[in-house]
Amino acid sequence: MPILDRPWIVASALLYFLACGALGVWSLRRTRSARDFWVAGQGLGVLFTGLATMAAAFSGFVFLGGPGLTYRIGLTSLFINLSVGITPALLGWTVAKRLRLLAEVREVYTIPDAILCRYGSRAASGAAAVAVLVGSIGYLGAQLLALGTLIEAVLGLRTSLGAWGFPAAVAIGLAVLLFYGVAGGMMAGVYTDVFQGALMLLAAIAVFAYAMHAGGGFGEVVHSIATSPRFGRQFLEPLGKTPALTALGFFFVFGLGVLGQPHMLHKFYMIRDPRRLKWLPLVLGGSQVLCLLIWLGLGLAVPALVAQGKLAPLAKPDEATPAFLLGFAPQPLAGLAVAGILSAIMSTADSFTNLGAAVLVRDLPIALGRRLSRELLWGRIATVGVTLAAALLALFYDDLIALLGTFAFGTFGAALAPALAVGLNWQRVTAAAATASIVTGTALCLGLEILGRLKVLPHLTGPLPAAIALAASFTVLLAVTAWSKRPVLDGDVLAVMEV
Amino acid sequence: MAHRLALVLLALAAPASLLAFGAGWPRVGALAGGVLLPVALMILGAARRGRLGRLWLPLLFTTLVFAGGWAAILTLPHGGPDVAGLPLATALMIFVLVPVPLLVTGLAYALTFDRLGLAAADLERVRAARQTQGTET
Fold first, then answer.
1. Torsion angle of alpha carbons A35, A38, A39, A40, nearest 10°?
2. Could B14 and A474 be called an inter-chain contact, meaning their C-beta atoms sit closer than 8 Å?
3. What pTM did the predictor assign?
4. Do A468 and B42 count as a contact with CB atoms less than 8 A apart?
5. Where is average pLDDT lowest: A9-13, B115-119, B131-135?
6. How large is the ipTM?
7. Hey, is the C-beta of A451 within 8 angstroms of any chain B C-beta?
């Protein structure tokens, strides 16, 4: 009965859900209009906006997937994070200010709304909505994979249920997500994201410090890995186990794809005073770097402990984080870390259940020239459908959390980054170019990922499908713009773009 | 000028990276995509009336840091000699390529925001445009 042996973990998980529930009820009482519901009444300060953006961006991908990917491919995994040095300012200069200003002049609540405003094209916003739906199911699938991995380890389900342990864990995770999404998710607003972001930071710093301590200090950790026959110095080299093109692909997809992540961009609508955006890159980047300490800490400490003979080699790389927490961390720290991981998973999952549901009940109907009545009821039904589709994906994906996360991140990036980042800063970009770019990015990313997985194009693994799709999407946007007539923009949109 | 430079960089780097990731050649195209595309987009977003003002300096510095870092990563055999127990190229990734550009670009963004980003008068102009548009429609 492993769960009874770990009362701190159970208690911290319960406390976490209680705190989120209380915050959700509190924020529900403050929600009086659609503007309150979708964009938190545009009342956030820069610190809250930065923390909420970080919490939505960093998920089970970072807390479980990152250490797992590092265990498999070594420190090449850090290419995913290398772009964090430039992405906060890149977001600030290219999209944050103009998205927030669009929300100043029009009723803009979602990313397809912004596309509709900028291009005046329902085809472009409809294509963006489809891309958001595909990416949301992929990202939710990654969160369910992470939640299933955590639950299976904490409850010891593999020991008790064997091969059914993981599906059972995913089913439990699905139930938690559905409850959170349908009952709590609708009322749990951005304030829970802020709380969860703070918890994630605390957990990441504490786990990093303890992981280094458990491995005998940073010097001993890297020495153990370098001298181990299982890992060797190659593990620590930037291109040790991975081709250069794959490493460049990770950097490319995560460095540019960030410009199309709806769960992050959506938070920019919420800042109260657009002029407070000046501090956003430093707040967002600082919190991201601190949070990534868990990726680096466990990515190094777990192989070091295996090399030192203190931890058995992992059956599945994604078990790196649970194996460390359950085997080495003191119970209060493990409890804090589990709460931090739950925060990471739930804050992201919450964003995607809402975004996915918004596509089905708001963005697609608007693109088709209709509005649904009883949006809340249909929103809840849509939440269930999107989450079930994600659960199926999690069960049949059969690979690392980080790779499913890369696919989803890549889909958003390939579909939306060019139309937003170039289109919001160059008046010459046309609706036809944006639509072609969004369709190219979505179709290529999905198609190449499937062809790679079916071994039709076996070399297309890891970030390469998304990298090709993203590069193609930029190229198509520029090419179609070059061959199109200059568009005529509405006065308010023009004013936003001229700032 | 800066705006045009950004568009030229985009027009060169996007197809180059497509060739590199799609056909596996030329590999330098992938590097061009990874380093030049973000820089081009930063210039495109930051330029006011086609000009960068003082922002050219931090953006050039960031480009050079990334280009140098990538050169070390791709050319040092086995990541180079050890520094603090890590191969030099890995140490550069962790201790230079993340924190230095973050501070430089983050501070450049914040310190130039009031003049080059969004001045109070800009915001008033946008709000006035909303009212005008509302009146017209």
1. 80
2. yes
3. 0.91
4. no
5. B131-135
6. 0.95
7. no
| pLDDT at residue B30 greater than cutoff 60 | yes
Q: Which residue of A has its CA nearest to B52?
A: A93
> How many CB contacts within 8 angstroms connect chain A with chain B?
227
Which of B62, B86, B103 best probes binding to A when mutated, by most A CB atoms within 10 angstroms? B86
3-state secondary structure of B51: strand
Chain A residue nearest residue B103, CA to CA: A282
Q: Tokens standing for B101? A: 């550009």
Closest CA of chain B from A156, distance in Å: 35
- HSE value, Cβ hemisphere, 13 Å, CA-based, for A289: 23
The Cα–Cα gap between A328 and A334 comes to 9
Residue B116, C-beta contacts closer than 8 angstroms, at least 6 positions apart:
B46, B48, B53, B55
Residues A11-50 pLDDT 10s = 887 788 778 777 777 776 776 666 666 677 777 889 989 9
How many whole angstroms separate alpha carbon B137 and alpha carbon A40? 27
Give the 3-state secondary structure percentages of chain B, helix then strand then coil, rounded to 5: 85, 5, 10
Q: Is A274 on the interface with B (CB under 8 A)?
A: yes
Residues in chain B, overall count: 137
Return the CA Rg of chain A.
22
* Spatial separation of the C-alpha atoms in residues A279 and B99, rounded to whole Å: 16
- Minimum distance, in Å, between the CA of residue B21 and any CA atom of chain A: 6
pLDDT tens profile A50-80? 998 998 888 888 898 899 999 999 999 999 9
Over the stretch A116-170, which tens digit does the pLDDT of each residue have? 999 999 999 999 999 999 999 998 898 888 888 888 888 888 888 888 888 888 8
